[in-house]
Amino acid sequence: MKRFLTCLLAAGLILAFSMPVLAVDVKFSGTFVFEGWMEGNRNLRDDSQIPKAPNTSFMDHYMFLTTEFKVAEGVTITTRAHILDNVFGDISSQGRAYTTNQQLASNIEIDYAYVDMKFGPGFFQIGETPNGWGVGTIGFTNYPTSSLRYCYTPKNWFVMVSYEKVGPGASVVSQQGAGGSTTLQNVSDGDYTRDNFLFIYFGNKWEAGHLLLWDRANGGQLSGVAYSRGYFIINSPYVKGTFGPVYIEAQIYYTGGTIDLYPANQAVAGDHLNISNWVWHFKGQYTAGPMYGGLMYTYVGGNDPNHPGMLGAFVGSGREYKPCLILINPDRDKYLGALGPSSVNATMGINNNYYGGTVPSNGSSAGSNNFSLYQGYLGFKPIPKLDLFASVTYAKLNEKPLGWISDNLGTEVDVTASYKLYDNVSYMVGFGFLFTGDAWKGTNQNAATDNDWLLMHRLTISF
Prior knowledge:
With 463 residues, this protein is mainly beta. Helices cover 8% and strands 55% of the residues.
């Protein structure tokens, strides 16, 4: 009997301590995506000189699951899991198509885990959070970052002050000495941090915002040489909204600063690099009944080969910017890898957005850089659930590398059809054809290039 009463008391204590946990309010949301791809000539070469890449055809799927726990009045914990992101039939985390996706794994990965806690007129946000400086359309890659933020949300406003720890840094950096020997060089205060100030005003069907960002990094390496860097980003302003039948979005980024190398690295233009990087984007659309059409122009800076000490390519287009099916499409790059010959692509930094991909030699790994893109498009919605879309896009390099034949990336024609099967379920099919430009020849006048085509479909379920 005594043992029975002891077990009963223990069970009662466990239940008592569990009651607050059982009372937690839990909300789930997320997205499931299933898609298939077929591409005809990803290396953009002609069989007369270099064999074309074989037709690539496969299916993949992935899921994002966001869970929100309300643990007390004014306190919530939010997590997001990235689930089973893989190619059908690939049960390992290695050896994906063209070995470009080794950061993807067929398991559950936690992207975000952060707490929102009300304090005064706003709230604190602490933990692994979504990138806090992605606003507007261009230059945004949605990745997790360790941050401490305070957000204030009066009527029609969102104001955020944020400190982000982007990388752990290092106090000791390996250096290559004379004769191939390895030495260690101390770097003071080795870390990588950001300070952000962001405010957004929300009007009736429109919004406008301004971002100020200060980025500081010590203890990194550039071409094997340790460096420190400091730069600022001004995203001023961005605006997007609907005004009657007209939709407009416009955005400007400017990044300025310096990179100081230890010791002087003549291969990277001495011991000091200046950053002066422009990114701008404009889109205008007019809707008349079931028809709509518009124009888009995007500019992302590149490095001028005549000024090697100046970085004009720094902030890329971002992995959320997807104007085409083939050109500048991170969804395509994710599994298929870089477009065109690897040596040419690495120099221009176009379509190098895949996860696990190498950093282009002339700019940021977050999307593409050094391009201007011009697009015209038309859409037709014969019924509310069906959206037919067609676009023509021309793209060119802003800065042509020394000795290159051309700056013409090509002209792409895309056609897509999207149908809403249910309120939160949609299906899309798309076909793209790229008329390859001579920029993909690089410095080889005699290189034989050929066109590329892409056929894809995607099922998206949101809940």
